[in-house]
# Entry
Amino acid sequence: MFELIEKGLESKTVAKANLVQVRGQTRKITLCTAQNGVIENFSHITINGISARVLAQNKSWGFSSTNQVKKEKVEESLKTAMKLASASAKAKHQKIVLEPVPIAEAKISAKAKKPFENADLEEIKNIPQEACKGASAVGKNIADVKASFLTIQDQKWLASSEGSRIFQESTRVLLFVDVVAKEGNVYCPASENLGHTGGLELFDENPPAGLGKKVAKKADKLLKAEAPPSGRFRVVLHPTICATLLHEAIGHPLEADLAMAGGGFGNHVGKPVMSKLVSIYDDGSVERGLGYFPYDDEGVKCRRTLLVENGLLRSFMHDRTSAASMQTSPTGNAHAWDYSVEPLIRQTNIGIKPGDSTLEEMIEDIKEGLFIEGTFGGQAESSADFTFGFQNAVWIRKGKLANMTRGANLSGNAISVFKTIDAVSKEVVLRPGACGKGQFAVQGRVVPSVRCEIMVGGQGGK
Amino acid sequence: MRTEDYWKFLGDVARKTVKRLENMGAAQVEAFYLATRTTETNIRNSEIFNENTIEDMGVSFRVATSDKHVGFACTNVVNTEKAVFEAGEKAFTIAKLSPSVPDFTLPTKHKIPHVKGLFDKRVANADVEETVDIAYRLIQSTENVDKRITAKGGIASFSYIQKGLVNSFGIDFEAKETQAAVYVYGSGSQGGEVTPSCGDLELKRSFDLNPEKIGKTVGEMIVAQFDPKPTSSFEGAVIFEPSAVSYQLFYAMMSALNGENVVAGSSPWVGKLGKPVASEILNAEDDGLLNEGFNSRNFDDEGFPSQKTALISRGRLKNFLQDATTANRLKMANTGNASRSGSGLEMASQIIGGGYKAKPKVFPSNLTIQAGKKTRNELISEVKKGVLVGDMGGFVQAGSGLISAQLVRAHYIENGELQYPIRGGMVSGIAFDWFKQIDVVGNDRKQFFNAVVPSLRVEGVKIIGSR
# Structure
C-alpha cells in the first residue's frame, strides 16, 4: 500500500499544494447478533479504500476518497481533492498556516493476548448465544434479548508530503447486550456494553453469559421499581452515566472546533471552569481503550493531553488546523472513522483523574438523593447543555441506599453541574464509548463515580 | 474503466455469483449492489470549511440453505470476479454454520411501480462549485438576519446513487436516484449569553433547493431565542413542531409499528390491530410512492415493490411495517419496508453503516402523518397555558415510549400568545399516551429523512421548569 500511496505524493497535480496526506485502509468487520437464542445476523464485511487530502493556497482543504485501490485512482483522487480545495479558497477569509509536526516513520500493531484471527466461526457464534442464554435464564419476564458481538480489524497507512510514513494495525472487540423485561403492559429496558482494543481476552473477566444475566436481572428488577422523581437532586453518578456526561457535555465543548464556534468553555484557558476536585485528560495511548491510536490521521503522535487541571482549563483538543488558528500545538485528536471520510477533531480515551473517596463515603454524606446508574446515551450542545437517559436510580436516604427507581433523563448544563462536584471516587474504570459527530467513532472513557447536583426529569414524586 | 463500466461489471459478476452459489447448493441467494458518489461542502464557523467527494461501490450477499440457515457478507473490493465471488462464498459458509432463522424468506418477483421525481441529472452531475455556492448562500442568508448570529455548521450535499438487486426468485432490478440536502445551524450571542443551536434542513431529489429560505428560517429561529426566561413546572398544552415530532415522537411510533418488534414481542401495539392507539384525528401511512419523496423508491432494499400502507386511521391501528421475513413469520402481507439505510440508535448498526454493508431491516419509507387544517398561529392562539416546542433533546425509550426530553427552541404560551423563549426545562411523559392526547394537527407538514410530519398539539403534558 505504501508504494501505491507514496507515488501519489510525487504527482504533478499536487505540486502547488501546501500539504498532501494520502491514506489507505483495509477493514474487516465481523458481526454476530443473537436475538432470543436465534442467530439473527451473522455478517462479514470487507472495506478497502484510499483517500487524498490536500491543503491549497494556505486556505482550504479538499478531500476525496474511493474504494478503488489503484494507481490511477490515487491520481484521480488527488486531482479532485486539489480542485475541491481550490474551489473554495476564494470564498475563504482566514488563512491556515500549519505548524510543522515531527516526521514520523512508524509501524505499530496493537497488542492482543487472544487474537481474534485465531477464533473460528463456531467460537464467534457462541459469544452472543451465551449472552442470550444467560439473560433468558433469569425468568419468564425476560421478553426480548439481543446480544451483538462485533470486531473491527483495521490496517491503516498514512503518507504525507512532509515525509511521514505510518502504518497502524489494531483489532477492536465489542459485545452489546440489550434486554427488555415485560410484565403486563410494563416494559423495562436495560443494556450494557463491553469493548476494548485487543483480543478475546475481553471475556476472561466478563464472560458473555454473566453479562447477559446481569443485564436481564436489572431489567427484571426494574419491573417492580417505582417511577423516577423529577427535580434537582444531589446525586452520585456511577461511571456508566458519568462516562456519557463526560464525553458528551464536557468532552465535546473541549474539542477546539466546537469551542471556537462559541462553546461553553469560551476561551478561558488558565481560568477556573469547574470544581477543584476535577482534572480531565484525553489520552490516545491508553492501550486497551477503544480510542487507542498511536498516531492520529494527520500523522500527529497521540499522547495524554491535560484539558482541565484541578478545575482550571488547560487546553482544548486540536487537529492541526485548529491548533494553527489558536496558535498552539496539535494534540493528536484528528481522527477519521474510516478511509472514506476526512479527519475531524475527536476524543480518543477521555478520562477524569481518580479522586480520594470511596463509593460508600460518597453515599454516606447524602441526606436525600439518588445513585444514578446506566446510560441510554444522549446528546449535548457545545454550550454543554445536555440531556441523557439513565437506566435506573437508587434512592439515597440518610446516607444509605434505599429502593430502586426506573430510568428517565437528566438534563442541565454540564459545566454548571461539574462546578457542583464535591467528591470523586478513587476507583476509575475503562468504559467503551461511541460518538456520532458527523461521522461515527468508537472511543474509550476512563471514569470514576462523581457526586454532584443534577436535574432529573422523571414522572414520579419525591 | 469508467464508473459506468465498473457498474455494469459489478452487476454481471453479482448475477454470476448468485448462479454459482445456487449451483453449490444454496436455496436462496440475493445480491444487493450499490454505487454512490457524493459531493459535499461543509460549513464551520461562518466559513466554507472543506469539500469532499466520496465514491464507493460494493456488493452484499444473503445466502440461505434449504433449512433456512442464513449468512451475510459484503465487500467493496469489486474489481475482480474472484473478490466478489469470495464475498458470496463467505456468506454461504457463515449460513452453513448458523442456526436456522424460522420463516426466513427472500421476496418473490412482482411488478414494480415507477415513482416520479427520484432522479435529477443536474444533481447526479453536480460540480463542487455548485455545492460551494449553495453553502456560501446558506451562511450569508443565516447571518444576514441579525449581526449577533454565527452560522456554526452545515452542509450542502449532492449524491448520485445506483442500486441493483438480484435474487433466486427472479428479481433483477436496477434503479438510479439522486439526493440533494442542505442543512445549516447556528446560534446567537448577546451579552455573553449564547442561544441554543437552531438548525433547519431541506431534503430533495432535485436541484430545486432554496438555501436563502433555509438560512432565513434559521436566522429567525435564533433571534427568537434571545432573552430567555426560566419557567415553573406545570401541566399544559404542548405544540410539538414538525422537527420535534420527527425525532422522539416519530421514533416511538416507528418502533411500535415495526414488524420486527412485533415478532420480538417488544412493540406495545402487539395485539392492537383495529383498536385505538391514538387520538381519532390522527391518520398515518407509510408512503414509498410519494412523488419526489426523499425516501421513496420503486422497490425496497430486498426487491419488493413500493406501496402506500395505511398504518393508523382515525386513531385505530391498521397495519404494521413488514419485510418478506417478518410478513412470513406473522402471516401478514409484505409492506415493502426492507431498508438498508443503516439508521438506528444501536451502536452495532452505526459501526457497520448502511447501504451494501447492512443487512436489510424493517424501516419506514416515508412515514407520513396526515396534515390538518390549522396554521401554527391558530394552534398557538387556542392555548391558554402551554409550550411551543421546536426541538427536544434526549432519546425516547422505544418499548415503554418514555420521553423525558430537554426543551430546545421552546416558547412559553399564555392566553394564546407566545410570551418568551424558555431557558432550561424538560417535558416528560409517555409518547403512547401523548398520541391519544393529540387534540389538533397542524397544516405545516415537512419532509425529514423518512418522516413527513406536521405539528401536533398535545393536551395535559408535564413540563418541568427550571425555576
Summary: The mean pLDDT of chain B is 93.
